[in-house]
Write a structure and sequence with these properties.
Elements lengths: L3 H16 L7 E10 L4 H15 L8 E5 L8 E8 L10 H10 L4 E12 L16 E9 L4 H17 L5 E9 L5 E8 L15 H8 L4 H10 L1 E13 L8
Antiparallel strand pairs: 1-3, 1-4, 2-3, 2-8, 4-6, 5-7, 5-8, 6-7
Length: 252
């Protein structure tokens, strides 16, 4: 059983490379969410910090750790690696780090939700610079799109990004789509910030997003929003607040 976890991860990456819908020009991210045993959060953070310091201390191996602050997953931890190209998966399983994690950190974990591989959609993202380091907080906005309706979702999200660009919006947003490990119609907006009093604004106008959208797209906000909402599953809306765990994050 000693190498079982390593074998499973290696197999999963191999299946991902061979069978998933991939693109060599995409930017990939991975996430893994953990439920810690009751009363073991301090021990988990300490052990995760030591693992991070030992095995995630270069730009290639950098990792961020966040804690879920709201919603049904409140209290869980999420470990995130990103800004990777597809070749990273050829050697991305880091056997030494996995074995260390299993031995020294795994004892504090009640449940692992499983790794998810994401594609960051660059043309829907705004002010997102992976090299600038993680922010203190982010809102993770989940949207489940109905089969065959991704185009309607994409159109509205893209137009909002264009409004941001034209009016120099100060917020930070990234949009991700599941590649492997979850529902392929799940889209996630990450709205990142460091200060609750400044989560993004239009510095040169007092007009709202929908007013600026109407100016750019001939008053179509209400119609486009209706189409967008109809493209989402009734149950497919969720929002949660995430908080950075600095001591278990590379370079923090």
């Amino acid at each position: 059983m000693k190498n079982f976890f390593t074998i499973i991860l290696s197999t999963a990456f191999g299946l991902f490379i061979s069978s998933a819908q991939t693109n060599p020009n995409w930017e990939y991210w991975t996430s893994n969410r953990h439920q810690v045993k009751k009363g073991m959060s301090v021990e988990f953070e300490k052990a995760a910090a030591l693992k991070t310091k030992k095995f995630n201390n270069t730009p290639e191996t950098a990792i961020s750790t966040y804690r879920v602050m709201t919603g049904p997953d409140q209290g869980k931890y999420e470990r995130i690696q990103g800004n990777k190209n597809i070749s990273w998966f050829n050697g991305g399983n880091q056997n030494g780090g996995i074995n260390y994690w299993r031995k020294n950190v795994g004892q504090y974990i009640e449940k692992n939700d499983g790794r998810i591989i994401w594609w960051r959609i660059k043309n829907l993202s705004y002010n997102w610079n992976p090299e600038s380091g993680p922010t203190k907080y982010f809102h993770r906005v989940i949207r489940m799109v109905k089969p065959g309706r991704l185009g309607d979702f994409w159109r509205f999200a893209n137009r909002i990004t264009e409004v941001y660009k034209k009016h120099n919006y100060t917020g930070i947003q990234a949009v991700f789509k599941v590649v492997s490990g979850g529902n392929e119609n799940m889209m996630v907006f990450v709205d990142a910030f460091n200060d609750f009093t400044d989560q993004g604004k239009f510095p040169d106008t007092d007009k709202s997003l929908n007013e600026l959208y109407d100016e750019m797209y001939n008053g179509s906000w209400n119609k486009d929003l209706e189409v967008y909402n109809d493209a989402l599953e009734m149950w497919g809306r969720q929002k949660e607040l995430m908080s950075l765990v600095p001591n278990a994050t590379t370079g923090m």
